[in-house]
Amino acid sequence: MRKLLLATLLVGSLGNAMADPKGIVMDFGALDTIDALGGSSSVAALPKAYVPEYLEKYQSDEYKLSGDMFKLDMDLIRQENPDFIIISGRQGRSAAELQSIASVINFSAGNDDYLESVKYNILAVGKAIGKEAEAKIALEQLDTKIKAAQEKSIASKQKAIVLMHNDGKLGLINHSAYASLVHDVAGVKRADEKQYEGRVVADTKYLTEINPDIIYIVDRSAAIGAKPLDENYFKAKELSEVAAVKNADIIYLTPKLWYLSGKGLQSIDLQVQEVMAPIK
Q1: Which of 138, 152, 153, 210 has CA 20 to 30 A from 69's CA?
Q2: Do 72 and 183 lie in a common domain?
Q3: PROSITE patterns per the record (predicted)?
Q4: What's the pLDDT at 9?
């Protein structure tokens, strides 16, 4: 079942209450969830290179470096003797080795059942740090905010697309986790309902055909410290004359929040706020 794949957890001692659990946290959405639940003392180590701005306190020397997103410091992780390890898809290749060290929570979320898997993972993290009750309350509060956003989106006639920038190229990510957050969680209507097998370039032809009211942009390059999308991209002659560009709200989403974080109690709240900013 999908849930078992999304949150591999609750093996060994995590099934019972644990005093002062300590863990290695490789996912920033999980980190912001732990932070929101008041469990920062449960964080032993994390990858610090690209910590999102709203979690910058975890760059301090109080927390050890567990390697980067793809190359983990296995020696340090073993030395820490953690009670749990939280990973995402970026560390998938190391999952088997990590499971030999401690119980593993895979904080990945499915595109098709995004919100359901997010909630399941948040509860799993809450249980791991001994704050399951707090996690349930926090999810109820988050649900209230999401429902309010959905009601506003349903009432609005605006339709949107979600694009990703990577190394100078801007393409549609219509059925990604990012799009799920925009369209399924926040409820913003899709300007493009089609599913595509290959990459779709957001050029003049495509934008003219789809004619979105809102263009959301996830800048992968900016998130990882590479060259961000040129601020004059939409001012280029071939695009500036496109009605869709002239009339649309172009929303540059916070890069690290969207590309490196997400799926957490704080990040989903922040993401929904960004998504809803242009909704009338």
Answers
A1: 138
A2: no
A3: FE_B12_PBP
A4: 46
* Domain with 270 in it: 155-276
What is the SS3 assignment for 216? strand
pLDDT at 18: 53
Pure H helices in 47-90: 74-80
CA 60 to chain centre: 23
d(CA 102, CA 92) in angstroms, rounded, equals: 15
> In which residue ranges of the chain is pLDDT below 50?
1-17
Instruction: Kindly state whether residue 144 falls inside one of the protein's structural domains.
Output: no
Residue-wise pLDDT tens digits, 164-189: 999 999 999 988 999 999 999 999 99
Give me the torsion for CA of 223, 227, 233, 238, rounded to 10°: -120
Domain stops at, among 130, 146, 181: 130
Q: How many distinct structural domains can be found in the chain?
A: 2
Pull the structure tokens for residue 253.
């989403």
- pLDDT tens profile 47-66: 998 899 999 999 999 999 99
How far apart CA 195 and CA 3 sit, in angstroms, is 24
Say if residue 11 is in the same domain as residue 125. yes
Look at residue 110 and tell me if it is in a domain. yes
For residue 149, is it within any domain? no
- Domain's final residue, options 80, 113, 130: 130
Return the number of other C-beta atoms located less than 10 Å from residue 243's C-beta: 10
Identify the CA nearest to 188 among candidates 207, 227, 226, 216: 216
75 and 167 housed in the same domain:
no
Distance (Å, whole) CA 4 – CA 120:
10
Task: Check if the beta carbon of residue 53 is closer than 8 Å to that of residue 7.
Answer: no
Distance CA 88, CA 86 (A): 7
Q: What share of the chain is helix, strand, coil (3-state, %, to 5)?
A: 50, 15, 35
